[in-house]
Amino acid sequence: MKQQIPNTRIQCLLGVVLSFLFSLNLLAADKTDVVVMNNGDRLVGEIKGMEVGQLEFKASYMASSVLLDWTKVKELKSVRRFRVEFMDGTLHSGTIFFKPDAAADANFGVIDHDITIARGYLEVVSIEPLERSMWSRFRGSGDIGLTLHPSQGQTEWNANAGVEYPAEHFRFASQFSSLFSTKEGTQDTIRDSFGAAYYHYLSKKWFSVGQLQFLKDNQLNLNLRSTVSAGIGRFLLHSNHSGIAMYGGIAATNEKYFDTSASANGTNAEALTGADFYTVRFASSRFSSKLLVFYGLNQWGRIRVDSETGISWEIWNDFYWKTSVLENYDSRPPTGARRSDFTLTTSFGITF
Q1: Which residue, 74, 148, 218, 287, is the most exposed by fewest CB within 10 angstroms?
Q2: What distances in angstroms separate CA 267 from CA 11, 70, 131, 256, 272, one per listed residue?
Q3: Exposed/middle/buried for residue 235 (C-beta within 10 Å: 0-12, 13-18, 19+)
Q4: Lowest mean pLDDT among 165-169, 200-204, 206-210, 307-311
Q5: Cβ proximity of 81 and 129 under 8 Å
Q6: Which residues touch 63 (CB under 8 Å, ≥6 apart)?
Q7: Of 70, 98, 64, 79, which Cα lies nearest the Cα of 33?
Q8: φ/ψ (deg, to 5) at 221
Q9: Which residues pair with 291 in a beta bridge?
């Protein structure tokens, strides 16, 4: 007598098969977002996101995504959910649309549970699909440069890497840089730095920030400087192509020097003032600058300045050429140590 398969098992097996087939159908289905450009081009596919004035879009017939000038978009609609950031710092989630026949200050909208938030489309800073996985939200870059002067017996290389994670209410960013230079008859130059920052959005244009920094620089006779800081900041300018933010707070810094008296080493309390600036030219170049000024509290009158400025040019797709300027200044260094270290580097890299 044949054994009967219980109906519950058949139902479960059938449910698994149907779920699998349904998942395949969803994966195979093409997105139906619609974008219409000012010249009349109509694109149907998937909106990947928008930032720094560039709308990333991919249709089924495209081998890779394309970047569209946000200012030249005439119409847009989608039934998918996105997170949208506006110039005043507010964040909204829902389905989106852009209607050219609406008023200029209300032609872009976010709809969530029958509630519509309408603004001018030029007030949009970024658009991000919400179905993205956590790992797909990470973005970053890496570059490396090498300079050789055989006739002078000099070799120099530098490397930089950065990773950023944007979320609905916060942003995390980290940066690493390394420089090594050797020349016959002189001391080798070694400079390594790492920084991490956490920005939490409090309300319109306001945010809190926490930072962690490490620096090793033998030109400053510095074995290791570790800095932890926290503060409050505000966006003075926040658009899809430029941004200015200023913040202030307090910091604790621990320093260890090479070949100096023990009194030069230790932990110090400092007040902090910082500023970040960036501007982007569509599909061409990006300029960014960061300035940190530390004022000694238990070493009254001492001022330290850390600055980093860079400009990058896109060469092809995700590849770019970058020039960076870094400077560290100390108004009251230990005996025998230099006040400042200035570095100019060029490198070739890729974004991801």
Answers
A1: 148
A2: 67, 48, 45, 9, 15
A3: buried
A4: 165-169
A5: yes
A6: none
A7: 79
A8: 60, 25
A9: 275, 307
Find out whether 51 and 82 touch, Cβ atoms under 8 Å: no
> Angle at CA 303, nearest 5°, toward 220 and 252?
85
Q: What is the enclosing helix (H) or strand (E) of 228?
A: strand 222-238
339, HSE (Cβ side, Cα atoms, 13 Å): 4
Structure tokens at 46: 């998937």
Cα 121 to its chain centre, rounded Å, is 22
- The residues, ordered by sequence, that sit 6+ positions from 195 with a Cβ below 8 Å of its Cβ are 174, 175, 176, 211, 212, 213, 214
If you search the block for the tokens 């200029």, which residue do you land on?
Answer: 104
Q: Model confidence at 143, in pLDDT bands (50, 70, 90)?
A: very high
Distance (Å, rounded) from C-alpha 65 to C-alpha 239? Answer: 23
pLDDT at 8: 54
Q: pTM of the full predicted structure?
A: 0.76
Please give the single-letter amino acid code of residue 203. Answer: S
Could you report how far apart the first and last alpha carbons of the chain are, in Å?
62
Instruction: Map out the domains of the chain as residue ranges.
Output: 33-132, 136-351
> Token digits for 234?
């505000």
User: Cβ(125)–Cβ(50) under 8 Å?
Assistant: no
| Comparison of pLDDT for 21 and 266, the residue scoring more | 266
Nearest to 102 by CA among 128, 74, 81: 74
Q: Please state which CATH number belongs to domain 136-351.
A: 2.40.230
What's at 241, amino acid-wise? H
